[in-house]
Design a protein that fits this description.
Chain lengths: 479, 479, 479
Amino acid sequence: MGNCSQGCKDYFSRQKNTNIRLTLPVVCFVWQIAMIILFGVFIRYDKESNAHWVETKAHDNITSDIENDFYFRYPSFQDVHVMIFVGFGFLMTFLKRYSFGAVGFNFLIASFGLQWALLMQGWFHSLDPQTGKIFIGVESLINADFCVAGCLIAYGAVLGKVSPVQLLVMTLFGVTLFAVEEYIILNLLHARDAGGSMVIHTFGGYYGLAISRVLYRPNLHQSKRMQGSVYHSDTFAMIGTLFLWMFWPSFNSAITDHGDGQHRAVINTYLCLASTVLTTVAISSLSQKTGKLDMVHIQNSTLAGGVALGTAAEFMISPYGALIVGFFCGIISTMGYIFISPFLEKTLKIQDTCGIHNLHAMPGVIGGIVGAITAAAASESVYGKQGLINTFDFTGDFKDRTVLTQGGYQAAGMCVSIVFGVVGGAIVGSILKLPIWGDPADENCFDDEVYWEVREPSVMFCSYPNRSESNFSVEHCES
Amino acid sequence: MGNCSQGCKDYFSRQKNTNIRLTLPVVCFVWQIAMIILFGVFIRYDKESNAHWVETKAHDNITSDIENDFYFRYPSFQDVHVMIFVGFGFLMTFLKRYSFGAVGFNFLIASFGLQWALLMQGWFHSLDPQTGKIFIGVESLINADFCVAGCLIAYGAVLGKVSPVQLLVMTLFGVTLFAVEEYIILNLLHARDAGGSMVIHTFGGYYGLAISRVLYRPNLHQSKRMQGSVYHSDTFAMIGTLFLWMFWPSFNSAITDHGDGQHRAVINTYLCLASTVLTTVAISSLSQKTGKLDMVHIQNSTLAGGVALGTAAEFMISPYGALIVGFFCGIISTMGYIFISPFLEKTLKIQDTCGIHNLHAMPGVIGGIVGAITAAAASESVYGKQGLINTFDFTGDFKDRTVLTQGGYQAAGMCVSIVFGVVGGAIVGSILKLPIWGDPADENCFDDEVYWEVREPSVMFCSYPNRSESNFSVEHCES
Amino acid sequence: MGNCSQGCKDYFSRQKNTNIRLTLPVVCFVWQIAMIILFGVFIRYDKESNAHWVETKAHDNITSDIENDFYFRYPSFQDVHVMIFVGFGFLMTFLKRYSFGAVGFNFLIASFGLQWALLMQGWFHSLDPQTGKIFIGVESLINADFCVAGCLIAYGAVLGKVSPVQLLVMTLFGVTLFAVEEYIILNLLHARDAGGSMVIHTFGGYYGLAISRVLYRPNLHQSKRMQGSVYHSDTFAMIGTLFLWMFWPSFNSAITDHGDGQHRAVINTYLCLASTVLTTVAISSLSQKTGKLDMVHIQNSTLAGGVALGTAAEFMISPYGALIVGFFCGIISTMGYIFISPFLEKTLKIQDTCGIHNLHAMPGVIGGIVGAITAAAASESVYGKQGLINTFDFTGDFKDRTVLTQGGYQAAGMCVSIVFGVVGGAIVGSILKLPIWGDPADENCFDDEVYWEVREPSVMFCSYPNRSESNFSVEHCES
């Protein structure tokens, strides 16, 4: 294997320099030190996580510790956390030889992103004008995880084609753009988007697609042997799918109103996702000659319903309304994999490794529209007077807003997220095109050996390049 | 591989038509549309998930949002949800080449089943006579997941031998039967069964076994090469085992009384399961010449304690009582795998792929008996006057029932669940025997290639059927 | 394969007798029966899990069931439970052929250990002097899981080199020692250690290392072919890594004070772990010629931050303080894998399979020091008067203790845990050296076939020992 291993390395480094021994450590160290300094200057515990809480309780007449926001949010937070790290990470392990990159780089950029998100979202949403500090609690952690989700979605479009340094740069800008568009949509337009159909999924989807467009690789077919899945990698990917699917009710309800808001968001999302599974299976079966199912569809399109209910989950969309949204999302998303993805690649030159257009971008837009319509159709008879105020937060500057106006602002928010995604992605893509980031050559895409010490190389791809034995990928090659 | 793939297909379709391109999509679409219509007519948010909750709170003098039932049940709900989709799904991935079917079909039928369960259970348990509506909240979602569990258990008996269409039919009838027997046991007989030893495990177990009996395949040995596990598939199955094992305390406590009821059910289940692991290991080791352990036992029998405490978990069975139940369940369940399963197959012609008789049916019956005895032995000194009333719900029509009578009704409930399982399974099995469902031929059982697009076929089984090289299963065959 | 299988067995049993058909079942049965008897004598439900809770509520003027400690602790408990069984279990599956042993033996010893821990911790911490009983609730379950964690850490050092009987013996003594050192540290010295940097990680780490030292195998290189990982086993191990990483905030906050204590511990741990990931990646990349990452580092060192914040997580270490701890832990732990582990093996003759010295022992010591410094630096201005009392529990006998004294006692606690680990481990190691436990021969270490029925043996290691074909590990060998 000594030979083989050497041969592989030579082969890999033929055209492009994927040596990241300088850039990756430098970026990690410098950025982490920057985080420490900025956290030292800006970030403090909020009053519910501060040791002075005992005084706050007395002052605010809070009778029990259980009314600390921690107990309203923590179970949802942990579910969201699992979605970010196991859900997104394992969903991308479907490629036959990119599991380390999928799970590992997902881990890396999420860990950086959540720190940067706490700062960016803090500056835009919760900077205390008197002290100049950002006070964080469990809801801030959820929001940071949400923000990171946008960047992980974008990672799906470029999976296997970029270096970890590029991913970190993409995350730095992605989080920054996210915080700004979120500020515009949620604070200025005062749109509601608890589960982030617009701010997370639409933005993240178009951000990733735009980057992928700019980084278009005309010769990507040279690494075709590494594309596609193998049996076990598809099973690993189902771990990701299922944890995303199961915990999506927590995702959509994590920052909704205490009480009925969280309760309703869970019910709606649960139902919507169940409906999506059935139509995904139906379309997937229809697409094959003998009705066989395709794992790509089951792994991805079953989740589209959760995306599409991100805005409306907390509204009184009613249980059958949630089922209807799921019904159409399963159809549209699966058809996306069958018809739209090939079109995007051939015509628009967008190479979308995980099909995020079908799983996030399109369903995100649907979610924005569903949210706008549901908001515009809200009425006092359905929500109750106070319920309407609570659900749409018609307080302060917005206390006179009508539901129809709200619907309009929801639609406007939708457009903002698309624009931020497309324009932001195009700009960031151009930055990532610089030849300094150590990205892999076209023939080495989707291969973990570029950035990871892999103990047993996949024999077939280096030892016997021209022999019929190369048909066999013998998995465990001893050294 | 072109050859091979074609050859495989011919081979598969020799005897039976497994083309489900018409039936599967039709069933999915029609049933999902039916769900939407029925949900539109019947299902509404309950008062704790309705935007009018703010009024309910004022009306009922509820001081804090944290008293919304959501916060009592949601963490348990999410754990149960994980058990249904990851637990049951991955537990069945142990077969070498049926992981897609295990996880994927589990996903499909659970997603359909939970919708149908909300309707069926709603009609039987919570139809509001005035409005004619079913009001759902988080407890309804848990109950729907529970109901689905019964059908997933039954799936274990027929794993690898049926088509997804048959599974959907099995689930439709399974959920229906479940709702009826549950109504009889919990409402008419007023038996207690929070974790479902009787209504879920005993019913589900016998339902699956009866179906498998009717669908008996005398020539199943023809697909013997696909039975059994490989190294990685056993590791995947352990994911299912562990998530079931870890979250079983949530399962048994999810719908018990607030406060001490949930608390006690968790402690009892936790202890019982720990005890089961030790005796399972002991018997497994005894069963082999050199004391080696068998993954089949570790994957399944370790869970028997959770099943057997489904009824009694909320009772004051006391910690050592829970350990005793677990002790015997580990022994009985493991011995079931060693002695009873071969007997069932040879003598009773019941082919039980996952051994649900040992994991669900028998421990379920034990659980029913343990529950009856524990109930009959309850006393005011142990429970307290009000504690006894709360635990056994001796209110309304049942306020004068004695614990001894309660024990009798528990035992009666046990019998009802067996009868429903056996008779229901026999009838549904006959329906599934019709030659229209696209089930696989005997020699193609336990093979994902029948219903899934598998990118790399398992070479050995088609290319070199008669050569010594066929000893090698080369896993990754490139196309 | 008949031949091969027989050959393998002969080969395995050449030097050592690994037949555990007598010892394993006997130990399991006898110990489990002992547990049942001891539980019968000592263990009872506490007042919050007792059916008399309704009376307790009335007596203590508790207005809502939600104030039952269950609702403060249960979500954290389930997360900790997942860490113990899936986290620790799958983290150790990285070896190419020891996944069954990793997950399965972890399952076995944790299941025994938690029962024994409930008794040992009960006797030392919560034995009611009047009744002579131990009253358990959800917090007891968490503590039992914590106690078990210490033994699972120790398992990491001897992974693949011991028999399950040895592991059970190691757990019996480990839990016993744990309960004593915990009593000394938490009760006598009154040190704070909510997440167990000292009592769990430092103790467990040194306990395992000392045992490994005593059991030193000079000829371990004979099983070198079984050491190291393969592609899929590394992916499985990432499941363990991620569940540990994600749920570590729950681990460190599970038994901290209600309200701000739990809230703050979560925030600190979340941040610390994020920071660790970046520096781990940086050092890992620096350590390879072309900057490639090493899965060993990513799987393990990313967790060091959680260990090192075990003591200080509940203190007002402030968000940037948490980041700084994580920053250095990532560096130190990764460097440990690169430089210290080889040194330990060569010079000190400590063979540490999982590198627990780098993941638990060293970061645990750091955590003890960080805790001592943070405690000594605490002030009334930062904590508030009552906050200081609550956080450090300056009540009863300790109400006059100053923070400086507290810092000293924290440091003393640190030393106690090291001494217990080293001395205890040396003694237990000597017991485990007796030739009666069925441990494997040097050339059969790290191989599941010794203690598990493995359906397809790894062909290369038995069929073709001296041929070049042995380079191929054909994974699925049909019998």
